[in-house]
Each structure stands twice: as structure tokens, then as C-alpha cells.
Design goal:
Largest sheet: 5 strands, parallel
Number of strands: 11
Number of helices: 16
Strand content: 5-15%
Shape: globular
CATH topology of the largest domain: Rossmann fold
Order of helices and strands: HHEHEHEEEHHEEEHEHHHEHHEHHHH
């Protein structure tokens, strides 16, 4: 997994030449790329959402297209259209901007539901259908959609079906004072994104997308994931909890995060670091809680605090597996399990 860690550091370091002080957000976008997932960037204008998407695409050498969503945008403006060629007497397909490796769907909630739905097939099936003909999308294919969470006038909220197709939701936020001064200095002469060059190959990304699937996830970690997701369905302040897709998304992103840190196993820390970004947009807060200004993120944080980290019942089994690992049998998975138990023991000692 050291190759994935090196890959991530090269991309993140290159992007940080433009995006200052937002390393965690850059890491989350890279996790989504490794998981073949889509990202919803939710923040006020001017926080660097478009710049982040462009710099990631340039760093990896991916094709990049931007779609500015407006109320008069048509589905054919997104997917493309078939035009009759009078010379050849045949219809020719003119591809839309969605046919790219990284697509920035800017202000996606300003388009009508009909136009928004044109992205559904592309995001889930990685293909589009125009006039009965199916066109496959390139690989990798990632949608980075933005929306302003403050201004709702003239917008069309994304339906639950489309929100659930985003692997992660993240917020960039305003830069702190020192970072904002650094931004001013770097853009004194020109925008630093003009100097961004490719630092990795697309083929590396495609190879690592397969490699992260080999990251070891223990049974207890799987139980922890399901416990967190199940709790969203049983909470009194949540009208609609996360689906099984939320569990799978948390599973995959945890594998990617572990690999980016050079590990071949997932720990509960990976789950805790990602659960808010993975689940907060998949749940619907009930009206009574909204009146009390309770946010989805706050409810997810509460659930994480209430669900105990697995490990109390795992000691004997891990000790037994560790002995097997030292004898060379099932060494890879059992060694990963042994390291997780060490993590659990250290966490317990810290709490006491």
C-alpha cells in the first residue's frame, strides 16, 4: 500500500500549491476517486470548489468538463444530442460535457429536476442513453457537483435518490487568516492553477482503484459499520435513515483511507473520520428536530458517540489469531487483525 500512499502524497502536494489549508478536503476527493465515487461540494461561493476540481483533474491528467447548471438547461445539453448529417444521410452523435473523466456540475441545484435526472444514469451506470443508443463513459468517471447551501431562491433541491448516489459530501469553508494572506501572495501575478502540471498517470489511478479492494476489513469493523448505519434508521430525530448503500460506501472509503496512509487494514479511526462525510447527506432530519436547528451532521456525531467501538469481546479471538499469524498461517489477514487489536488496546488505555 506504500505505492498508494506515495501516489496520494504527490497529488495532494500538487493540489496544495493552489488550494491552501484544505488538506482534509483534498484527501476526501482523492478517496472518492479511488472508490470510483462522486462528491457533493456544498459551500458558499468563492471557497475554491471549482479550483479544487480543476487542480485535481490536472494533477492526474484526466479530461475535465464543466457544466454550469441553470433553470433553462436541457438534458440534451448535458448528455449530448444526435444531429442529422445531410451529406452522409445519417444521424451523428454530438457528445455533451458529461462525457469526460472528471465532470464539474456547478450549482447543480439550479437546474430543473428533469435535467438533474439526466445525471442519474451517468453517475450510477457510467453510461448515457441518447435516442435509444447507449454510450459508455470514460474511466475513471467522477462527478464533482457543487451547490450553495445558503441561497435557495430559484433552486430545485436534489431528490433523495440523487443525493444517495454521491459517495461523499464535504464543505471547504473559509480559509483562516494566515491561509488567506498566503492566497493573496500566491495570486499576486497570476493564478497558481495555470502552473499545475500532471504528477501522476491515469493508469496509476485505475490500478489503485482495484488494489484498495485488497485492504483487510475485520468482521468487527464490518459490524461497527452496520451498527452506525442501523442507528440512523432508529433515531427519533431522523425521518429517513441511511440505506445499505451507505454501509457499502463507508466500507469502501475506509479501505481507501487506510491505503492512503500506507496500511493494508482498516481501523475504527478510519470509520470515525469518514462517517460524517459519508452519511450526513443520506439521512433526513424530521421536522421537529429541524425546528430545534438540529443538523444531520450533529445527529451523526451523536450516533458515533453512542455506538461503542468494537473490541471488548474480541480480545481472546485476536490473541488466538495472532498466534496463528506468527506461525505463517493466514498471515496477512490475521496480522491485520492483530494490529487492530493493538489499536483497540491502546484506545482503551487512553480512555482509562
Amino acid at each position: 500500500m506504500n505505492n498508494i500512499q506515495e501516489f496520494a502524497e504527490r497529488v495532494i502536494g500538487n493540489v496544495e500549491r493552489v488550494i491552501i489549508g484544505k488538506r482534509s478536503a483534498v484527501e476526501l476527493v482523492l478517496i472518492a476517486l479511488l472508490c470510483r465515487g462522486h462528491v457533493l461540494l456544498e459551500d458558499v461561493p468563492g471557497t475554491g470548489k471549482t479550483t479544487l476540481a480543476k487542480s485535481i483533474a490536472r494533477s492526474i491528467g484526466c479530461t475535465f468538463k464543466r457544466i454550469q447548471f441553470t433553470p433553462d438547461l436541457l438534458p440534451s445539453d448535458v448528455t449530448g444530442i444526435s444531429i442529422f448529417n445531410q451529406q452522409s444521410r445519417e444521424f451523428e452523435f454530438r457528445p455533451g460535457p458529461v462525457i469526460a473523466q472528471i465532470v464539474l456540475a456547478d450549482e447543480i441545484n439550479r437546474a430543473t429536476p428533469k435535467t438533474q435526472s439526466s445525471l442519474l444514469e451517468a453517475m450510477e451506470e457510467r453510461q448515457i442513453t441518447v435516442d435509444g443508443t447507449t454510450h459508455m463513459l470514460p474511466s475513471p468517471f467522477v462527478v464533482l457537483a457543487t451547490q450553495n447551501p445558503i441561497e435557495y431562491e430559484g433552486t430545485f433541491p436534489l431528490p433523495e435518490a440523487q443525493l444517495d448516489r454521491f459517495l461523499l459530501r464535504l464543505h471547504l469553508g473559509y480559509p483562516d487568516r494566515a491561509d488567506e494572506i498566503a492566497i493573496l501572495k500566491r495570486q499576486r501575478q497570476s493564478h497558481p492553477i495555470d502552473a499545475i502540471e500532471r504528477v501522476v498517470e491515469v493508469e496509476e489511478l485505475l490500478r489503485f482503484q482495484e488494489l484498495i479492494k485488497d485492504v483487510y476489513v475485520d468482521d468487527l469493523i464490518e459490524e461497527y459499520i452496520v451498527s452506525l448505519v442501523t442507528a440512523t434508521r432508529q433515531h427519533d430525530d431522523i425521518y429517513l435513515g441511511a440505506s445499505a448503500r451507505g454501509s457499502l460506501s463507508l466500507y469502501r472509503t475506509a479501505q481507501a483511507r487506510a491505503a492512503m496512509q500506507g496500511r493494508d487494514f482498516v481501523t475504527p479511526d478510519d470509520i470515525k473520520a469518514l462517517v460524517g462525510s459519508v452519511l450526513s447527506h443520506r439521512i433526513i432530519v424530521n421536522p421537529a428536530a429541524r425546528i430545534r436547528n438540529v443538523s444531520a451532521q450533529a445527529l451523526v456525531d451523536e450516533i458515533v458517540g453512542n455506538i461503542s467501538v468494537p473490541g471488548a469481546r474480541a480480545g481472546r479471538r485476536y490473541e488466538r489469531e495472532a498466534v496463528v499469524a506468527t506461525r505463517g498461517q493466514r498471515a496477512e489477514s490475521n496480522l491485520g487483525a492483530f494490529v487492530i487489536q493493538l489499536w483497540l488496546s491502546q484506545t482503551a488505555q487512553t480512555k482509562t
